[in-house]
Design brief:
The structure holds 2 protein chains of 2 kinds. Chain A is mostly helical. Chain A has 15 helices and no strands. In chain A, α3 packs across α14. Chain A starts with 6 loop residues before the first helix and ends with a helix. In chain B, α4 packs across α9 and α4 packs antiparallel against α12. The chains are: A mainly alpha, B mainly alpha.
Chain lengths: 283, 302
């Protein structure tokens, strides 16, 4: 049995499909244009950028801006700081949030519901709401302007526990019960069954943590007081609002230094990024 | 019956499980209490005091001032402006973000096969960028003689000096926020659209309904729960509006882009920790209201 489609309906369908592609391509061009413009601009000397702010292609492309960032502006150190802080937070979240997530998902214990409710509530409390007392407390611990001060408030996150609890909850109970009947301890179950089965979940958590910390701004801005403790976004922002605000070559190159590494990681691991963000929905 | 009583009364196995479970939670709890829960409470407490930067070393000098900080805030036209600007950003930014992300999601879900993954990655890319870097780049694109006005001139529009114009600075920031954020609701909508059974549309088309009609009468109602979730999540993220004015305008011109977050940060910079806490707690209250809505929402969904 063949379906007969009226020629006009078929033509309409083709037109619709073409229209969809035109819309998607135009939208994509607009979406990607700022990236292209940033990268092309970073290759121009500042004089050329100021002379014609609407130009796209560099007339005399140079890596001079990047050389300046490294030699005169200490961006190498900021880059290392960003990696250190984000890396430490990844380790803390993967380790501690998976442990707590396991207890919340698979052990029936007193206080479980309260703890999980608190985690849910804290999911929606943003950094801007608590940075003042956090600053007072970290300062009183003597950790202002230190790596520990930068890292400790984000070493575990409610989001991490929430994600791990949801993922670990999907592991079938029968696997754990069999192990418990065999006399395996909870520690052994966690190490031998839960962790090996949580690979994709841990990867998602690691990637999201790295992304949030790499882009985190308010806390490092508040707690880093001398420039040797700056992370990339802090250095770039203070550079942009300071005396160098019109040094566009350096500013665009600095933006590339912040954006390009994370976009590269995103392009390699995009499945985890998109699934992770779709499942949490939080920025 | 007896087993329930035994469970209630502290069944030794359950007591042991509780101990084991809390040991698993211990490292998380230490940091969660110290750097998560306590600051939320401390922020509230500090908002009722006159704590300043110089009190850091001598906390005994801190005095209880009741609601004075909140009175100061609402007497300050700059704070009221910050509150209104933040709401402007949320109320205009969210619908625009949602409409654009829904249009793209529907286009991606319309049965196209070629390049679908490529489009999705491209549209999502702005989400992973640092707001600071984005603000630095867009500040330059928004210059009076910059790229955006160049593009507008191409179609015959004479654009304003966006960031130096009290009327146009906020819309400029909203457009930028939409660009950076629409990828998030896009992937959530895509997941929602994939849950709409194609048979429903086929049935509608057999009954002679146009595509637009079947989108409006079938797809949109089925997406309502997704839409509400997206709205609440976006509002929580848009309420934190801070980096954009920090980099692009310093809150100006004429306070037209100052936000609650920026105001709180400024007061913190002046050393007025009590006032800064009160300002950020206004934000907590707005978010609490929204999360209450969110919990209600999740309950009605499941």
């Amino acid at each position: 049995m063949t379906t007969v489609i009226a020629p006009s309906a078929a033509r309409q369908r083709v037109a619709l499909r073409i229209g969809t592609y035109v819309l998607l391509v135009l939208g994509l061009v607009v979406t990607l244009a700022p990236f292209a413009w940033m990268m092309l601009g970073a290759l121009k000397p500042t004089g050329e950028i100021i002379a014609d702010p609407t130009a796209w292609l560099p007339k005399s492309p140079t890596l001079g801006n990047f050389a300046d960032l490294l030699s005169r502006q200490n961006f190498g150190l900021y880059f290392v700081n960003s990696i250190l802080v984000a890396g430490a937070c990844v380790v803390g979240n993967v380790l501690f949030c998976s442990m707590a997530g396991y207890a919340l998902a698979k052990i029936d214990f007193a206080g479980q519901r309260i703890l999980f409710s608190l985690v849910l509530v804290m999911l929606v409390v943003p950094g801007i709401a608590t940075f003042v007392p956090l600053f007072v407390q970290v300062s009183n611990l003597g950790l202002a302007n230190s790596y520990l001060g930068l890292i400790m408030p984000y070493l575990v996150t409610p989001l991490g526990v929430f994600l791990m609890r949801q993922f670990i909850g999907e592991i079938p109970d029968s696997l754990l019960e069999a192990a418990r009947l065999d006399g395996a301890s909870e520690v052994r179950i966690f190490l031998r069954i839960i962790l090996p089965l949580s690979g994709p979940a841990l990867a998602t958590l690691a990637i999201l943590t790295f992304l949030f910390q790499w882009n985190n701004f308010l806390w490092p801005l508040v707690i880093a007081q001398t420039d040797n403790m700056y992370t990339l976004p802090v250095a770039l922002a203070l550079f942009a609002v300071g005396a160098n605000g019109t040094n566009y070559g350096l500013l665009l190159a600095g933006s590339v230094a912040v954006v390009l590494p994370i976009v590269t990681v995103f392009l390699c691991l995009q499945r985890y990024f998109i699934q992770g963000i779709a499942s949490t929905g939080i920025k | 019956m007896t087993s329930i009583v035994a469970n209630r009364g502290g069944d030794p196995a359950r007591r042991r499980r509780t101990l084991v479970a809390w040991s698993f939670c211990l490292p998380f709890m230490v940091f969660f209490l110290a750097f998560g829960l306590w600051p939320v409470l401390a922020s509230l407490l500090m908002s009722f005091t006159d704590i300043r930067s110089r009190d850091l070393r001598t906390p005994v000098n801190v005095g209880f001032v009741g609601l004075e900080n909140y009175v100061t805030l609402f007497d300050d036209p700059t704070f009221v402006r910050a509150l209104l600007n933040t709401l402007y950003f949320v109320v205009v930014g969210i619908p625009v973000t949602m409409v654009i992300s829904l249009v793209i999601a529907v286009a991606l879900n319309s049965g196209i096969q070629r390049l679908k993954g490529f489009f999705r990655v491209g549209y999502f890319a702005p989400v992973v960028t640092s707001i600071i870097a984005v603000a630095v780049v867009w500040r330059y694109m928004y210059q009076g003689d910059g790229l955006i006005n160049g593009a507008l001139a191409f179609v015959g529009i004479h654009g304003p000096d966006w960031l130096n114009d009290p009327v146009w600075a906020m819309p400029a920031m909203i457009v930028m926020a939409v660009w950076r954020n629409f990828g998030i609701p896009m992937v959530i909508f895509l997941a929602g659209l994939q849950g709409v059974a194609p048979e429903l549309h086929e049935a509608a088309s057999v009954d002679g309904a146009s595509r637009w009609r079947s989108f409006r009468s079938i797809t949109l109602p089925l997406l309502r729960p997704t839409t509400l979730v997206v709205a609440v999540l976006l509002s929580i993220s848009y309420l934190q509006f801070f980096e954009e004015p920090f980099v692009m305008t310093g809150g100006g011109p004429l306070d037209s882009t100052i936000s609650i977050g920026y105001y709180a940060y400024e007061q913190f910079g002046f050393g007025l920790y009590g006032l800064a806490s009160a300002a950020s707690y206004v934000l907590v209250l707005v978010i609490a209201l929204l999360s209450f809505l969110q919990f209600r929402l999740f309950r009605t969904r499941s």
